[in-house]
Amino acid sequence: MKTKRRIEKSTIYILLIFFSLLFLAPFFWMLSTSVKSPEELYLFPPKWIPSTFEWSNFKEAWMSQPFNQFFMNTVIVTGMSTIGQLLSSSLVAYGFARFKFKGRDFLFIVLLSSMMIPWEVTMIPQYMEFNYLGWINTLKPLFVPSWFGAPFYIFLMRQFIMSIPKELDEAARMDGANPFQIYYKIYLPLMKPSLILVAVFNILTCWNDYLGPLVFLNDQSKYTLTLGLAQFKGMFGVDMEGIMAVTFLISIPPLILFFFAQRYIVEDTSRSGVKG
After folding, report:
1. Tell me, what DSSP letter sits at residue 267?
2. Could you give the count of Cα atoms lying within 13 Å of 262 in the half-sphere of its Cβ?
3. CATH superfamily, region 64-268
4. CA terminus-to-terminus distance, the chain
5. For 241-270, how does the pLDDT look when each residue is reduced to its tens digit (9 = 90+)?
6. Under a CB-based contact definition with an 8 Å cutoff, are residues 122 and 112 in contact?
């Protein structure tokens, strides 16, 4: 039996290593291409490890456009959007999970139904609205809507809150806490895994968003990294090593984020954190 279990575990580990390498291969190829010389780009068979590492490709590619400004714009949009999502979505989820009011279930169904509406359908009405407000060619359309919550995040947090025993609410009320104090003193600390999961999802969404900035931004000084990369590709269509260098640099922050947040991502968010 022990030998059979060892064989099964070894097989599983081998398969995991194989598929991990398979999924990491494009990333390794991107890194390899970013440090190649132009002469080695189109060799056949391709070379995974270049003869000389052209580290200057990163600096030249990054300085070819105002990527520092693009980076700051992306950080502002991502940070403001994430803060708004965490505050608004958690508060709305708390209301749906713990308060009983007329039409609550119907409103929640309407909220879930809105998830089926693609952004392309609401794109033109949103553009007209933001144009009326004078927000076109500003960063506001990219993060202000996040302060009104997102259906998926609200649903995710509501399910988590519903798994928390209601006895905590009753005990807090007996101590004189009002509903808002119960929300930020009891539920927010318990919702830490769910909040981190929502933050990671939203950061990745905002960091990689291309269509939103493309629609609402016109001035290059307002561009985000994705628009900067697209413009870079348009200006230097055959500068493959430069494109790969910028792409690699842009992908570093999400990788660091995932590395530090992976423990919370895989954690079972159905746990309330209450023992006994």
Report:
1. S
2. 6
3. MetI-like (1.10.3720.10)
4. 37
5. 778 888 888 888 888 888 887 777 666 444
6. no
